[in-house]
């Protein structure tokens, strides 16, 4: 008959194994990487709400178009100082990942006309895709309380991470997360 001491040993051993498995599962690995990059994980990984917006050329864009891709969804405005601060590193990140199954969508929530946003993007020579949401509908859909806010969406369309405030997107930890998400 096994002793209580043996039972405790087996319980601790199997608990340790379960923790290791959780950390080495894709979800556990991403969770760990998000923490290292100081990105808040989104509990339960809900599905990203769908939307339809126009890009700077007036073309209709739907989130559905990016099914099966990792999506970097950034909410910003031309009048927002912290938004402007992070944009050069966003451009660098976009250039590095744009050919790798990675969708980059910067949603302008400017109330001004589209021309102002377009001039701003051209002036700074940003090439990442910009969508216009002058009615701020997507802010409500995604529960955005302040800008800049960025949401990472996995290939399954699940929201996995959120950052509120400016970020240096050239951070190696962030590149590591995106590399992991793209290959999953």
Give the SSE map.
Elements: H1 4-24, H2 26-36, E1 40-41, E2 52-55, E3 60-62, E4 70-76, H3 81-97, E5 102-108, H4 114-123, E6 130-132, H5 137-141, E7 149-153, E8 159-164, H6 172-183
Parallel strand pairs: 4-5, 5-6
Antiparallel strand pairs: 1-8, 2-3, 2-6, 4-7, 7-8
Helix pairs in contact: 1-2, 2-6
What does this structure look like?
With 184 residues, this protein is α+β, with helices and mostly antiparallel strands. The longest helix has 21 residues, at 4-24. Helix 2 (26-36) runs antiparallel to helix 6. 27% of the residues are buried. Helix content is 41%, strand content 20%. Strand 5, helix 4 (114-123) and strand 6 form a beta-alpha-beta unit. The protein has an eight-stranded mixed beta sheet. The protein has one domain (39-183): Glutaredoxin, CATH 3.40.30. Residues 14-26 have low confidence and may be disordered. It contains six helices and eight strands; from the N terminus they run H-H-E-E-E-E-H-E-H-E-H-E-E-H.
Question: Keyphrases for this structure?
Answer:
8 strands, 8-stranded mixed β-sheet, single chain, 41% helix, 184 residues, 6 helices, Glutaredoxin, alpha+beta
Instruction: Give the averaged pLDDT, no decimals.
Output: 87
In the predicted model, the low-confidence regions spanning at least 5 consecutive residues are 14-26
Q: What is the domain tally?
A: 1
Run of helices and strands = HHEEEEHEHEHEEH
**Could you name the CATH homologous superfamily?**
Glutaredoxin
Distance between the termini: 46 Å
Look up the CATH topology. Glutaredoxin
Q: Number of DSSP helices?
A: 6
- Radius of gyration from the alpha-carbon trace, in angstroms: 20 Å
What overall form do the CA principal axes indicate? elongated
